[in-house]
Amino acid sequence: MRKEFNIERAVEIGKTILDYFKKRKGVFSNIKIESRNDIGMDKEIYLNYITFISSIDYAKGIEADVLWKEGKEWVKKYRWLFLPNELFQRSCKEVMETFLIIRKNSKKVFRLKDIGIWLTIASTLQEFEGKTSKLLERFKKGEVIDAKRVFEFIKDSKEKFPYLSGDKILPMWIKILKEDGGVEFKNMDKIPLPVDRNVARVTYNLIFHEDFNGELSEKKKEEIREVWKEIANRIKVAVIEFDTPLWFLGGKYCSKRKCRICSFKKYCRGNRV
């Protein structure tokens, strides 16, 4: 049974969150998006950087912004790691030694299993000339790429795109490609909202006015997706636009109980309106 909530109030909350995020107001005033290209990567490297780092940005108890920031250091030192055609020209010894150096220096964000994920993604990209841009062009119509078709293709190719094809990472990857990578997409409104515990906390606190017990079943995820989809439809935006602000709000404020300084405390379950 679907949870009850006040849709008019929920729409007001949604509008306020997006307004604050877009204007970098309140809790979002100091947010820094580490996936942005602030080190002058060329287009092909940058899109591959987004693909590789997204693929190892799965739920593993790390600070995602630290991973994306350290990934830029890997680009500076080991540019060839992000170019599959060059990577596979190197000896196995050099490749493994490089990964182990990264592991040693970045233990908090790079695990040994990430080596296999990275190499699988690199092998798959070789089918597209080693370029994320060529992968995306497969779904291009005119000057615009169909985000829905890209989503469906990757989701149905789990063995070729481990973790990237997941419910949480795949929508995030497409969103970053659009917002930070400048990829022109259509049908962004068809991309579902990734739901993790951070998003769940915000939803339960602000929309459902219930305590979130930490359990996140598929049923709960779907309920949360439906809520934000309805809010997005009312506001006439793609629901994926809520991804970053909800993730940030849930992870930096709700999870740490920083209610007193939260910009949206008047809407919270502790301040019923």
Short description:
This protein is mainly α. The chain contains 12 helices and 3 strands; from the N terminus they run αααααααββααβααα.
Q: What percentage of the residues does DSSP assign to strands (E)? A: under 5%
Distance between the termini: 24 Å
N-to-C series of helices and strands: HHHHHHHEEHHEHHH
Number of strands: 3
How would you portray this structure in words?
With 273 residues, the protein is an all-alpha fold. The protein folds into 2 domains: 7-33 and 193-271, Endonuclease Iii, domain 2; 43-179. The chain has helices at 7-23, 43-55, 64-77, 84-87, 92-105, 113-125, 132-137, 147-155, 169-179, 197-208, 218-235, 243-254; strands at residues 140-141, 144-146, 185-186.
Characteristic key phrases:
mainly alpha, single chain, three-stranded mixed sheet, 273 residues, Endonuclease Iii, domain 2
List the helices and strands and how they pair.
Blueprint: H1 7-23, H2 43-55, H3 64-77, H4 84-87, H5 92-105, H6 113-125, H7 132-137, E1 140-141, E2 144-146, H8 147-155, H9 169-179, E3 185-186, H10 197-208, H11 218-235, H12 243-254
